[in-house]
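Researcher: Please predict.
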Amino acid sequence: MVFQTVKNQKGFTIVELLIVIVVIGILAAITIVAFNGVQNRGKSASAQSEANAVVKKLEAWNSVVGQYPTYCQFVTNTTNGTGTATGIGAAGCTAGTANSGPKEAKLDNANDVASTAGSVTSSNGTSVVYLSNMSSAGAYVNYYNYTASSPALTTSATTPSSPRVGSPS
């Protein structure tokens, strides 16, 4: 029986394989970080778009009625809506009877706005905005900014600042 040894074996060493795995890991990490940045910019753009839509609805109300609505009037789309709002949408509000607000200012979904800042979080901040300092003179429309160094609601003092309608108190 004759045994032959193969002298020219071809293949990769364990060191070469480890180097390739490390390089692939580094490239994957860079890709994940870049993807998160793109995703956060998209979320911020969506939140800003929602805020701009609410601004347009508030301006339409002011244009038709002659003053900005209270929070409960706005979410119930009635000129005599009352109550103490307690979070997202019409919670805590009572719709007035027979006095509908302007059709142009009707929200597609009352749950697009919140009466308390704590109701707008990173999980719902792309579709919910917070109306602050709301009065018959105006309001700030705060939205969740995902691209800030520590993501949170915008205010009149942040960059970018919250859109405002009229002269909020």
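Model: Residues 14-65 form the longest helix (52 residues).
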